[in-house]
Amino acid sequence: MVEHAAFVQGITRESIHPGGWVEHEPTGRAVVRCSCGLESGVVTAVRAAQIADDHRRGAAYARACG
Ligand SMILES: [Zn+2]
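Above are the sequence and the zinc ion SMILES. Below is the predicted complex in structure-token form.
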């Protein structure tokens, strides 16, 4: 049985500052990944949250009907 553990991975941009410290700036974009192999590609963070939610619901529905 395939478990669906969809998660949103925010994409950050690294800026290296004088002195050597690295800042991870959010870009407003994200990727959805799931343990079943789903990968949404880069979408907006808002869209990513929707995709992850829909995917979890879809997986739950498939289980109920399968
Ligand atoms: Zn999945």
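The chain has one domain: 7-65.
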